[in-house]
Design goal:
Elements lengths: L1 H33 L11 H38 L8 H7 L18
Amino acid sequence: MKKLQSQHIERFIIDIVLHVWHKILFLYSFPQFSDLKILEPVDTQTALINAREAEAVSAAALRHQCLWKHTLFFLPQLDKLRNMIPFDQMTIEDLNETFQETKLDKYWPHKPIADL
């Protein structure tokens, strides 16, 4: 029982000493450091970064617009390829009708070299 009481008393004394020590440190050191000002560097990069970011956003918007126009250019060709009949079911007439740019004329193998 005495041992338990002595432990409680020691703990109580330690708490009081720590509390007083903390108060002393706070009261004596705080006024000294309250007038201390921490210097912050002048911000010279934020404006440059914001300008680069705005430039990148506008460039990305322009690129997106150009890509969308490019996509719209090829959409009709894509629809044409989606709607055509399969190659293995095509005749020569279907092939010439579908791909007119590769259509061979009637006399293809016998064309003179000068006309090529």
